[in-house]
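Worked Example 4.2. Consider the chain below.
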Amino acid sequence: MKNKLSQGLATNAKNTAIGPMAAVLGALALATAGPAGAAEHVIKMLNQGPSGTMVFEPAYLKVDVGDTVVFEPTQPGGHNVQSSFVPDGAESWTSSPDAEYRVEMSVEGVYLYICAPHVVMGMSGVIQVGDAVNLDAAKEAAVSTAAGFMMNKDRLTTALANVQ
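Applying the procedure from the previous section yields the following structure tokens:
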């Protein structure tokens, strides 16, 4: 009888020690998981897509502050992604060729991005994060960026037309 009682007390002691530890680990996991409700969005880097050759799909994306955008090299072709215009206070980015790249969108506004190897083909896109607080400046930057396009000169203008 004494043996079963000792085993029961030992089991309860283990569970008591593990319970608080599990609670602490759970709280740490939640604290490092990112903003509550943050979403992940995928933009594909394509040689050929529904809107033509050398495209990002979708070319326009609206997300919330704190969301993550994942650029996925769906069709390898030396594609990269780099910001060409970001809101004040946001960091610029550049990825390696044919590599998945993740950007946490932490500053509200309109972002323009390109594929540097295929920029002359108009491979570009727009991300709106929250409100378009810098839309006029983004439109000016789009004109400057599109000046280097040899084809698909209206891609940025078309994508920017979706911004509200």
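The beta strands are 40-49, 52-57, 60-63, 68-72, 82-85, 101-104, 109-114, 124-129. Confidence is low (pLDDT under 50) at residues 1-34. Compare this with Example 4.1 before moving on.
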